[in-house]
């Protein structure tokens, strides 16, 4: 049979291999494993059959713990069951894994191995998670490349069934899970022949069933538990042979040789590496190079990690080996060595003439592991006394563990072309590159590889696409450093990142910019010109920004840039590429409508024709260059910019310039526990907006709504006095401040052009049309960046002149949450920003993992900042599932220490004079009121400092606890409705004074839009590919049923004032409160665009989709109904308009119109029923509940 080749990533290969053997999949989304489950769901929804002739039954659970429980139950019922996970998700499955292994159930877990949250979270790949599960009794199978995932993924299922031992199959997160490669696809018919049907029949017979009942999961005592553990040994002893025999079969089918341990290298090797995962691919390149030079080196790559078989290891170990270096992609603090090293050492214990064995750590959190690093490992082995317990790939100048790494090595096949693209998150660059790889991989006989490096901004961050194309399979599992083609989609990057220093001789650089030839030559910095001239490279520009707008694609320049790439890179003839691109555009965008497909066709044609070449002047090779990303002292700024702190200089700037890879360990001295300074996002000044708002002073009515809705706090109103006006470095437009008590002040709206991301939300809500969206260059030409530096940092925020609980008044208060990495137009962040304007100076935040934790705390950008007194929100994120408990713990901890203060005051009341005693009593009586405790503190502290007594010292030691804190627990609906709901419910059921903000996007936004229990009927989300069949959980109603919880449901765009009221009442409520905020999200596919997210909020409430209300338990005490509905009777006729205005609903209407009609009808009926229920509740008579005075 002809080989079937297909271009795919590791996750798709694992999903394909596992689908064959899976009857039930119990899943929960977590990066980077979610796509495995998404493919399974998608294929099942389309009716794709497994080897048993039926589609897989997939169930999404509320957490990984829940998914593991489902897998366990489904296996007990006799169904072959699979799950997919990573990182913290795998840790949550561990208790069930012991059970599944202990009950000898043939389940399989596919893991895209990922770092664990320790001093910080990381979504990237290493082996910390799988090593943390090595003691559970699961057999563990490692694969090193996309092709191996495809070939061996099925072996895990086959072996589990035959051996009765459950399997964990893992491969490197991102480096394999998200690397796209051209691979040979396994045929399900071949796999079907390998199934042990007798073992399957036995498994079914052992299933729990009332027709042949048994009892399982008993409690055993000290008399028999030990023996029952040992009786299972024979099953584990059999595993290596079973795996080896299946690998032999796979080798016959594929022609690629597989064993529990594979050896690669010189047959008479003296120095070898032992490793597992993607590093083995790069190691093979290095071994080929060294062996050719006569060095005796090799590699043992581990496939079967558990049970660890000495027989199969010694079968492949060359007899000549004198020295072994074991590489572990993990860190186990305090151990004598990492797990694989300890296993290898144990193999040789008491063996005669044992080789010298050393071990080291590499590649944590997907840290790039290059050929030069692997050569350093071999060089270390050649030394008289090789370094043990080493690290490679970092500079450890503190404990000196790191190996010296030599110059970069180019080992890839010379026919391979490497390309590098710098894009802006969500501009479509990555998607277009994935299509390019698939075109070249699937339509030609070339091999293709793609790997995508992201920062942790949401959309709007920098993306780097590393592509390689060549005539031979590509083993380079590391980033491209010597590209033949570089493309840059964002001109601002020219000054931020080094994109051209590695360009190959004769390479090409393509820049998307709005400049003419002459302007480009003027604007392109010297370092780029010098790099191009030195390497005889060619320079091209294209105005994809203007083209995209002209064609009607908005800011998505991806298709235009893709066409330009095919034209310039000359990997395949352009005419062929043009046709393939159009085929793929149709496939990719058909579900978004024919019109979008047509626009992309247009972009493909124009992208190739509108390229302009600029001659590279050889004299450029001698230009002077300035270092990148240095803070620029803007001419005429007069020193009003914020000076860099040491932390910003040492850590923030290098990381922002993509130079964090080179920071030594010593850079983090003093930050060992993962602490980062607040307010570093203000130093980024990314300048990624295409258009920014320009303020029209004459039209402005001073309502401050623009500032209120801005997701990024990049537009602010100021009240400026005469002295501040005089001290300004530039003159700028102002108008007389309107309002009582504002005499002698002028008003100005200031936009920070370099922090704005150009969403246009402000211009959209402005009632006076006083903001015009214009190209960013216009703003910078009129020195708006200098004005921003002056006003934001040097002019007082006069928040005490107007009531803070109005939309206008609240915006004169300094936002203590600014310039974060959320998407343009984000529906979540304006809510958080307002809370910091009201309570930021005393606010403590516990944040659930999710979008909000990523935009609130992605190193090195910290958007929570401080006021002029150095106060601001203290922010921390623990995990996903435990956020309510984490915030609750913060509150309990603070209050325990405040009780200690109270105790000290009470004990010493008679030892102080009357004015201090009065202050003590005042503090005790008003302990739960922030404003009063602050006033008392300011008078009390100096008086206590004047006393020289032990009890005064005791209170002063705890003075940071004198002011009552505002405790907030923040997260999304995936946390609040699903994985964290048990904890949230418990915390709300307490009587503690905590506040919860749930930003409800109705999907798991951070992992890519999977369905949660907040997803309404009929919405299409991942894991609800056929539309969600059941209605949204009513979290507000559940919370109201307790009676003592303050509950509000809000939608900022529907009623700005109502949200302020809700926040104020929630904070004032002496007890738990929860605010559920409707948050439009990029995942919804709002057809009007994210600039209209506030309009979408308004429509959602107007049509009855999202009613707004407040439930205040304190009203009950005065005999009033606690529930007050704040929205008008819905206009139900607009309901359809709302649903069809979002792709998440529209998709179903296109793919399955009949089903969509039924589900939409149900969705509307659910909303109407919910509205009627709220109305009934709001009409109840509470007069009998009135408490006596």
Q: Got a strand count?
A: 37
CATH architecture of the domain at 3-205 and 221-251: 3-Layer(aba) Sandwich
> Which blocks of ≥5 consecutive residues have pLDDT under 50?
none
**Secondary structure: helix percent:** 25-40%
Pick out its properties.
pyruvate, 43 helices, Pyruvate-ferredoxin Oxidoreductase, domain 3, Rossmann fold, eight-stranded mixed β-sheet, 39% helix, globular, 1189 residues
Q: How would you explain this protein's 3D organization?
A:
By secondary structure, this protein is an alpha/beta fold. Among the domains are: 3-205 and 221-251, Rossmann fold (3-Layer(aba) Sandwich); 260-390, Rossmann fold; 415-572, Pyruvate-ferredoxin oxidoreductase, PFOR, domain III (Pyruvate-ferredoxin Oxidoreductase, domain 3); 628-812, Alpha-Beta Plaits (2-Layer Sandwich), CATH 3.30.70.20. Helix content is 39%, strand content 15%. The chain is built from 43 helices and 37 strands. It has a 9-stranded mixed sheet with strand order 1-8-17-18-16-19-20-21-22, with helices on both faces. An 8-stranded mixed sheet has the order 29-28-30-31-35-34-36-37, with helices on both faces. The mean pLDDT is 95.
